[in-house]
Design goal:
single chain, six-stranded parallel beta sheet, eight-stranded mixed beta sheet, 424 residues
């Protein structure tokens, strides 16, 4: 589809071009004639400003006050203090990033110009930047990565609280202000429409799809191959809602209850929980079976992924995870790998027959599923081939990005219709 090119300012509270979804969207828009500017967080070794693949990128220093982890180890007083620190940390960091984006966006408006702001949540408070520029005729696109109220409930277990209502308010404000909303799957689209009472024709589903020019098999890591055992792997964020603690306990069951020592698990990624997960691995006596890479370059990631026999998706059932889609699942499939996952609705939609599904949050069953796949290489090959075919026929970014272009066609076509009506 040919779209009318325009000027887009993207806002994202993560590293760019490190965030796969944001990178794919930005580069696709550039390839289709759009001028794209990005305001993001600055990672180690990154420049405050540079042009990345035609994308003018401004980077802000990260502000971190407290660790964002619930703490149940102490008295009620200390748990309350921990919650205050967590909430205070988020409020301060989100306020800082939102205000910093506002300031830099004003600079960009004068230096480079833009017609639309494309905000990737969280935080949903970026709607403030969109609302300000709406006063000057700019459009607003809300890219709904996470359901913030469900994310908060999944991390901290609090449903009816001031924070939940606060998050619901900003979610609704973002969707109401948006000229176009982008959802990662049909579940999110339904929630956007029904919970926030917005028109169905302005919500577009742009699924997480792997860029096959980037995610592709390479030569495996020689050191892993030399181990002569089944190589398991995880790729992705390591935050409280991501289920790495479930995975480690499943690996403990695999090693000590099922008496399997013929495996080694590579855990790729970083996040708020990384230090705690490393400590948990020691506590569970898994030092000889797991390796945390931390954040690594793409070349190393592909080498490790290419070495894996089985890929793991331990996201537990939760208000957020039950309706979410993760790019790691389709990246596993793009590498032709079989998957073990808890049985969640949207994971089934993505992975289909490429995964073995076990009862949600059942660590022992998760371990048994891994054990069975270790012993069945023919099934692993069949599952991997099925997933690879699904990616190539339905889920690769070249296909899923068509809805992104449709969303922008809708955004600027509406502008053209208004101009035509005014001329008449």
């Amino acid at each position: 589809m040919k779209v009318s090119a325009g000027r887009v300012l993207m806002l994202v509270e993560s590293q760019f071009p490190g965030d796969p979804r944001v990178r794919n969207e930005a580069f696709t828009l550039v390839d289709n004639g759009f001028q794209v500017t990005v305001i993001a967080l600055r990672g180690p070794g990154q420049k405050p400003h540079e042009v990345v693949n035609g994308t003018s990128t401004y980077r802000l220093p990260r502000l971190t006050l407290f660790k964002k982890l619930p703490d149940e180890r102490h008295s009620q007083f200390w748990r309350l203090l921990n919650k205050v620190q967590v909430v205070g940390g988020y409020v301060t960091e989100y306020a800082y990033f939102t205000l910093a984006c506002l300031v830099v966006s004003i600079y960009v408006a004068f230096v480079e110009g833009f017609d639309a702001i494309h905000a990737h949540n969280p935080p949903d408070t970026l709607v403030v930047v969109g609302a300000f520029h709406r006063l000057f005729g700019k459009k607003f696109v809300f890219d709904h990565h996470d359901l913030s109220p469900e994310l908060y409930r999944s991390r901290y277990g609090t449903k009816h609280s001031f924070i939940s209502h606060f998050l619901r308010f900003f979610e609704r404000a973002s969707l109401k202000l948006a000229d176009v909303a982008i959802a990662t799957n049909e579940s999110y689209r339904e929630i956007d429409i029904e919970r926030n009472a917005i028109a169905a024709d302005k919500v577009f589903v742009v699924r997480n799809g792997p860029d096959l020019k980037r995610v592709r098999p390479v030569d495996p890591d020689p050191a892993l191959i030399k181990k002569g055992c089944a190589i398991l792997g995880y790729l992705g964020a390591m935050n409280p809602q991501d289920g790495l603690d479930y995975l480690l306990r499943a690996l403990r069951y695999l090693a000590y209850d099922l008496k399997r020592t013929d495996f080694y698990c590579v855990l790729i990624g970083s996040g708020d929980s990384l230090d705690e997960l490393r400590s948990l691995a020691v506590k569970l006596e898994l030092q000889d079976h797991v390796f945390f890479t931390g954040y690594i370059p793409d070349a190393d990631m592909l080498r490790y992924l290419s070495s894996m026999d089985i890929c793991l998706d331990p996201n537990p059932s939760s208000p957020l995870n039950d309706v979410s889609t993760w790019i790691k699942v389709v990246e596993y499939m793009a590498m032709g790998k079989p998957i073990v996952s808890f049985d969640l609705k949207e994971t089934r939609v993505s992975a289909g027959d490429a995964a073995v599904y076990v009862r949600p949050n059942d660590e022992a069953e998760f371990a048994r599923a891994i054990s069975q796949l270790i012993d069945d290489p023919a099934r692993r090959r069949s599952m991997g081939a099925w997933g690879l075919n699904r990616v190539h026929t339905a889920l690769k970014w070249d296909i899923t990005s068509r809805n992104l272009l449709a969303a922008y066609h809708h955004l600027f076509r509406k502008d053209e219709r208004n101009s035509t009506a005014a001329a008449l």
